[in-house]
Design brief:
Elements lengths: L20 E4 L5 E3 L7 E3 L4 E3 L7 E7 L2 E6 L5 E7 L4 E2 L10 E4 L3 E7 H8 L3 H25 L4 H12 L6 E3 L4 H8 L3 H13 L4 E4 L2 E3 L3 H8 L1
Antiparallel strand pairs: 1-2, 3-10, 4-9, 5-8, 5-10, 6-7, 6-9, 11-13, 12-13
Helix pairs in contact: 1-2, 3-6, 4-5
Length: 227
């Protein structure tokens, strides 16, 4: 079990100042972080932290996508969540990370030292409320994922997944993740994911426009599948 607290990643990449904003302050105005952490760049599939690492930092995604996952003893991988720009990850109840975090795509993350944040939250209401908001968002993600895994069929799971990714104003979904990622997130095999997508296309519900671009041909039919 690793106890390393050394930050991985490359900090030579520039990041816009706006990306360093900690969160929303009073009346929705941006609130700067109580310190100025250096942003880190991670290449696709690079490890940000590993299960068992000391949880000395939490991270805010400012570009790209990150997955948090757990590897079973038999080598299988379970993806807990996909984190988009604006999401925070790495919050733990204990002293060590319960999951690993990896870059789905090239990404930029800003690390915040956990001890400093906790101290700041003790006397700054804005920081305390922001930490509370991120914690509630994490719990909500976990709840929704548990509901998704509890759905009975692969078409149901994929329908919910695609609708969650889709914008309300667009009928296209650009997939940052691979089909193996999707399978490990939905508790399916990659063969089942591919077969179900092909079935949905034959039904006219979606159109596989490219390897990682899906058009929602019939959004109402997808919603009906969700139950």
């Amino acid at each position: 079990m690793s106890a390393s607290v050394a930050l991985r990643g490359d900090n030579s990449f520039a990041v816009p100042k706006a990306a360093r904003v900690w969160g929303l302050g009073v009346a929705g105005r941006p609130a700067e972080a109580p310190f100025s952490p250096a942003p880190l760049h991670f290449a696709q599939d690079a490890e940000i932290y590993a299960e068992g690492d000391e949880a000395s930092y939490v991270y805010k995604v400012v570009s790209g996508m990150v997955r948090t996952c757990k590897f079973q003893n038999d080598g299988r991988r379970h993806i807990d969540a996909f984190h988009k720009p604006g999401d925070m990850l790495g919050f733990e109840l204990g002293a060590e990370h319960a999951l690993s975090a990896e870059a789905v795509t090239d990404c930029m993350v800003v690390p915040y030292r956990r001890r400093t944040l906790e101290a700041q939250a003790g006397h700054d209401e804005t920081t305390a409320m922001q930490l509370y908001t991120y914690a509630m968002q994490s719990l909500e993600r976990t709840r929704l994922h548990a509901q998704l895994l509890g759905r009975g069929s692969a078409p149901q799971k994929l329908a919910v997944f695609l609708l969650e990714l889709a914008s309300a104003r667009s009928e296209e979904v650009e997939l940052a993740m691979t089909r193996q990622d999707i399978a490990d997130y939905l508790g399916l095999t990659i063969e089942t994911v591919s077969r179900t997508l092909s079935h949905l296309e034959r039904d006219g519900t979606i159109r596989l426009a490219a390897a990682r671009r899906i058009e929602l041909a019939d959004r109402a039919a997808l919603r009906a599948l969700c139950g």
